[in-house]
């Protein structure tokens, strides 16, 4: 058996440092990443529930957008979420969850200076280790998996409320248990045994969309393009213009890549999403085929995204770019060589 760079697990020294920092903390801010997903929010709320029970004042926040996506509003612990303006300037410990780099904190990155200690908890391989303590496991399915390991080391029991938050990150970051490893289902089993309703959590997070999602999809997917020769595997891409997204939540737009990436004729998928507030600014989702013939030499999209100022995982990454749709596709094709 060969050792892959991904199979590193958690460093026990980092785990002990993280436990010590949280155990002695007298106040904690947890920062989730911008355009939050259920993994970052689930991680933040799980930590908030645990810290609050210990009598530690805790604030959870994310810089943008202004509102929590609708699918996550039933997560336990949402009462600990505060708008960025209410995040204190100074705390004992600032924890960044599921943030591969300081840029993922958005406007809340300025709170790092006021924290006595910064703890980074993440599973992105491209993590820049911007904390004083870095608890990074690139082999973990989700940041909530890393949090589970942290709570175990800390001796904190996982009850149904905490398990609900942890499961939220696990079920979404594994794509409903498609991207799994040995131990993934064991962790799911352990969380489900607390009495949480896995079907209900998955339905709320993954299988519920407003009607406008259907009409947005019809416009966006109708404009999808296939570039068969790119990198010898083919590229499929689509643009979500601000007008296509309309008033839809960002999570509805984020779901487009999961449809585009199913294209059989392409090993790489890209979705360009125009900002609703900054004209000409686009966030770009990249995916690389991780199974089937040729997967061993699949394109490392984390490398492509990092070269374009972003980051991510080998098979799922992203970056931000400016310009017209023509500029954007030219820039990506150039990076793909
Ligand atoms: Mn994650």
Automatic annotation (TrEMBL):
Name recorded for this polypeptide: Bifunctional oligoribonuclease/PAP phosphatase NrnA
Regions that span the bilayer: none
SUPFAM superfamilies attached to this UniProt entry: DHH phosphoesterases
Residue ranges annotated for the DDH domain, each copy included: 28-169
InterPro entries (alphabetical): DDH_dom, DHH_sf, Oligoribo/pAp-PDE_c-di-AMP_PDE
Taxonomic superkingdom: Bacteria
